[in-house]
Design a protein that fits this description.
The structure holds two protein chains of two kinds. Chain A is built from eight helices and 14 strands. Chain A is an alpha/beta fold. In chain A, the strands form four sheets. In chain A, strands 6-7-8-3-9-10 form a six-stranded mixed beta sheet, with helices on both faces. In chain A, strands 2-1-4-5 form a four-stranded antiparallel beta sheet, covered by helices on one side. In chain A, strands 11-12 form a two-stranded antiparallel ribbon. The longest helix of chain A has 18 residues, at about 180-195. Chain A is globular and about 60 Å long. By secondary structure, chain B is an alpha+beta fold. Helices cover about 55% and strands about 20% of the residues of chain B. In chain B, the strands form two sheets. In chain B, strands 1, 3, 4, 5, 6, 7, 8, 9, 11 and 12 form a ten-stranded mixed beta sheet that branches. A two-stranded antiparallel sheet of chain B has the order 2-10. In chain B, strand 3 (about 85-100) and strand 4 (about 105-115) form a beta hairpin. Chain B is elongated and about 95 Å long. The two termini of chain B are about 25 Å apart. The chains are: A alpha/beta, B alpha+beta. The interface between A and B is medium-sized, with 33 and 25 residues.
Chain lengths: ~280, ~375
């Protein structure tokens, strides 16, 4: 039976006051079950990151509550939150956020050092994750020598080392090319299915929709189910991926035409030599 | 956390060495000025220290040697010598004035010695011999180097020419170079016939210098008598008023600079690692652990700086007088050890504010891609 792992009630976060008040998150109710993958999409500035920060205990809400695995983290004193983050949550970031001086193995083991005991088990689990995520040959490598895809796999392994019930991922495919993005997506899918983690992903990347159990739309601080007819599909001129133009955030203009991109990398490639990609896609070219 | 703190510090060796070198620079300045301070302090009382009588006798109202003028009638030396417990009295005449060597002028303290007054200096000869007859002078070897003179050269004191016959060691500091001339020659310059400046009094064994000084003051008319310890203390205090205070102030300024550099380095270290610290915090590292990591990094940088400074102090500073003989430097082990302790304290103090800021750092920074 599926268990409620993450729940928010009337979650609010407002910035500023009076005329300048911004309602980043304005009363969100959300329930996520174990093994479920929930995708949160929405335009830039819609409050996705504020919401994820509150769900992860990194930002205090103005009102409302967040429960993780039955613990109301919003009513916990500040000095208890780090332990909750270490044991109950795993974070995956767009910018990978690996610790540059530590090797792959040390990065993965870092959160394990924040809980007491179980060093031997942590090393065994790190070995298992390294093997499962295809990092066996990179165990002693430093982050600067890894590809984007490898970095994100290390970040996922790090998020999983303490076997948290919740994984929060912020644009996990945002800095990856389409192949690496696809790999990361499948790993997150397996994490939810095999480990029983509740996975909440904030993204603009429509590829991730394929693995999601639920897609929610955040706009004006409010969360609602997204309907299929709200798509406006266009194609990334570099990798050819289908992108919802309404939710895309990466654009570039060339010869008075606006192009949308799935990732920063595609956008950068396009900006270097736009003609080559347009010629490639031109049926006459 | 400790592993991260160590590895992140060592991962950028250039930055670590740069920061440590900045701190080392400040510490070297502190140790250098301390060495100058100690060197000058030691040298300023070098004459009294090296001649080391039990009691100094001088004109009433005079209590030290530097920049002082003292006249005692010669019969007062006989009065002192006649007292029970006095073993020997060695009179000297004394003048502080300019020695000229060609166009070069140097401030010096001139000591006039009687023919049998070996115990009144010079205490160590570097080259040549001691004075034997009128018109001869022994000057410090450093002064000879600075004025470009040597054995056989002439130097002038007021309008009188003296021939250098010897170069003494350990008789020079920037505040007082001590030269030795025959007593009669200095008496003639001072036009002080029948007088001495100071009496160096040695006592028989078993007599207390303090009691004997009091006895001399009591029984010999219009004289002041001080024990060696009192005389040196007074001279040192006078020297402090003359210029050592400036050196001491410079030591204080450099210490302050060291504190500021260490604090700034610790602050910059935190600023550079701000994002990684936010990641670590987001992953669930507690406040105490974070502060411990930051303070440990700062202490390590300061300690590396201290090791560099200590190495420089013991290896390089002792060779500086060979290049700049006018400098008298004394590197004290305790001064360096004190600096090591100071390094740890100021590195922790300097890192406290940035470390405290780290604990308040918004871990949501990690979402800024």
């Amino acid at each position: 039976m599926k268990k409620i792992i993450l729940r928010s009630n009337g979650l609010k976060k407002h910035y500023g006051s009076g005329h300048t008040e911004v309602r980043a998150v304005d009363g969100i109710d959300l329930t996520v079950y174990s093994g479920e993958i929930v995708l949160i999409m929405g335009p830039s500035g819609s409050g996705k990151t504020s919401m994820l920060s509150m769900l992860g205990g990194l930002l205090s809400p103005n009102s409302g509550s967040v429960e993780i695995d039955g613990i109301d983290i919003t009513s916990l004193p500040g000095n208890k939150l780090p332990q909750i983050r270490a044991l109950k949550l795993g974070f995956v970031f767009q910018a990978f956020n690996l610790l540059e001086a530590l090797t792959v193995e040390e990065n993965i083991l870092f959160p394990a050092s924040l809980k007491t005991g179980g060093k031997k088990e942590a090393i065994e689990r790190a070995d298992d994750l390294i093997s499962r995520l295809g990092l066996a040959g990179r165990r002693n490598a430093l982050p600067k020598t890894l590809s984007g895809g490898e970095k994100q796999r290390v970040a996922i392994a790090r998020a999983l080392i303490n076997e948290p019930p919740v994984i929060l991922a912020d644009e996990p495919t945002g800095n990856l090319d389409s192949k690496s993005g696809q790999e990361v997506m499948m790993i997150l899918h397996d994490v939810a299915r095999d480990e029983g983690c509740a996975v909440v992903i904030v993204t603009h990347d429509p590829r991730v929709e394929d693995i999601a159990d639920r897609i929610l739309w955040l706009e004006d601080g409010l969360l609602r189910d997204r309907k299929d007819e709200e798509h406006h599909w266009v194609y990334d001129p570099v990798c050819g991926m289908r992108i919802d133009e309404w939710t895309a955030t990466l654009f570039s203009e060339y010869e008075e035409t606006k192009y949308a991109f799935c990732s920063k990398r595609c956008k950068e490639r396009f900006n270097e030599t736009p003609e080559s990609y347009l010629r490639l896609n031109d049926p006459k070219g | 956390m400790i592993r991260w703190a160590l590895k992140s510090l060592l991962s950028n060796k250039g930055s670590l060495l740069g920061s440590a070198a900045g701190i080392a620079g400040a510490f070297i300045l502190v140790i250098f000025f301390d060495a100058v301070f100690r060197g000058e302090s030691t040298q300023i009382v070098a004459y009294a220290e090296n001649t080391s009588p039990d009691i100094w006798v001088m004109q009433k109202g005079v209590a030290n040697m530097h920049m002082a003028t003292s006249f005692l009638w010669d019969w007062k030396a006989d009065n002192v010598e006649e007292l029970e417990g006095v073993k020997r009295v060695t009179p000297i005449s004394y003048l502080n004035t300019i020695i000229r060597a060609g166009e070069v002028e140097a401030f010096a303290f001139i000591v006039g010695l009687l023919p049998d007054a070996d115990r009144a200096g010079p205490w160590e000869m570097g080259k040549g011999r001691k004075i034997e007859k009128s018109g001869e002078i022994v000057i410090p070897d450093v002064l000879a180097k600075l004025t470009g003179t040597g054995i056989g050269d002439k130097v002038m004191i007021t309008d009188r020419a003296f021939t250098i016959v010897g170069l003494s060691k350990g008789a020079y500091s920037s505040a007082n170079a001590i030269a030795f001339v025959p007593f009669d020659d200095l008496e003639s310059i001072l036009k002080s016939g029948g007088t001495y400046s100071f009496l160096l009094v040695d006592l028989e064994e078993g007599y207390d210098p303090r009691m004997m000084a009091a006895k001399i003051k009591n029984e010999v008319e219009k004289v002041n008598a001080l024990t060696q310890e009192e005389f040196i203390r007074n001279d040192f205090a006078m020297a402090m008023q003359m210029g050592v205070e400036i050196i001491f102030m410079m030591s204080v300024i450099c210490s302050t600079l060291a504190v500021l550099i260490t604090g700034f380095t610790a602050y910059m270290q935190v600023v550079k690692k701000k994002r990684e610290i936010a990641i670590i915090k987001a992953m669930g590292t507690g406040r105490a652990s974070l502060m411990g990591g930051i303070l440990m990094q700062s202490a390590m940088i300061a300690f590396t700086g201290f090791i560099m400074a200590a190495g420089f102090s013991f290896v390089i500073i002792p060779h500086i007088p060979a290049l700049a003989p006018q400098l008298t430097l004394v590197v004290s082990f305790w001064a360096v050890a004190k600096m090591g302790l100071l390094a740890i304290v100021i590195s922790i103090a300097g890192a406290l504010i940035p470390a405290w800021n780290v604990t308040r750092l918004d871990p949501a920074l990690v979402f800024n891609g």
